[in-house]
Design goal:
Blueprint (H helix, E strand, L loop, with lengths): L5 H18 L43 H7 L11 E3 L2 E6 L2 E3 L17 E2 L8 E4 L8 H8 L3 E2 L2 E2 L2 E2 L7 E4 L2 E3 L13 E6 L1
Parallel strand pairs: 2-11
Antiparallel strand pairs: 1-5, 2-3, 4-5, 6-7, 7-8, 9-10, 9-11
Length: 196
């Protein structure tokens, strides 16, 4: 048998990573990250480490290209998927009676295949939570920080509420008050953000 060249080995590794990404969230317990740092539960969609959210552009908003910086700004880290806890809230955004897509691969590094504990694979609004520790708390603000889209009580990206109005937020149909970025993500939760 012929020994593979370094280029062939690298190509095989890239193929394996892309296959994992294309397959979406798996539940392979053999994939763990024992050295993973504890993730903070930063709830703010504000920036850190010089990464500013987009508060000017109108939808649709693509997934950003600077994934490592965005993930770090959200207080998360990139690693193989966590297996201690795995659940899927969904997010629907409606602006001026039009649905706004949530893009695939928010929080997924296209160069390495590593992902944060809060990420997307599909473009259907499914948020994948894959944590390394049971009971970790994550917020909607962390998703938006990774997405690079501003989220405040009166604004989504470059779309601002009319005077006297706010972003309407519901969780499983119940109205939510306060900063939408602080909304904790929960299993099978249905989140809706609406701006008139």
């Amino acid at each position: 048998m012929k020994t593979p060249t370094p280029a062939q080995l690298a190509a095989a590794a890239v193929t394996a990573i892309l296959t994992l990404i294309a397959a979406g969230c798996g539940t392979d317990p053999a994939v763990t990250d024992a050295t993973s740092e504890t993730r903070s539960s930063s709830s703010s969609s504000s920036s850190s480490a010089g990464v500013e959210p987009d508060d000017i552009s109108l939808p649709p908003w693509p997934a950003p290209g600077d994934v490592p910086a965005r993930v770090a700004a959200a207080g998360l880290d990139l690693s193989p998927m966590g297996t201690a806890e795995h659940y899927h809230p969904t997010l629907a955004i409606t602006i001026d009676d039009q649905p706004v897509p949530v893009p695939p691969n928010i929080g997924v590094d296209p160069d390495t295949g590593a992902m944060s504990a809060v990420h997307t694979h599909e473009g259907d609004g499914t948020i994948h939570i894959e944590a390394h520790t049971v009971g970790e708390k994550f917020t909607l603000g962390q998703l938006f920080t990774q997405w690079g889209v501003a989220l405040t009580p009166t604004q989504i990206g470059g779309v601002k509420a009319n005077a006297g109005e706010e972003v309407r937020v519901t969780s499983n149909g119940a109205p939510v008050t306060g900063d939408p970025g602080d909304l904790e993500l929960e299993p099978e939760q249905e989140i809706e953000l609406t701006l008139p």
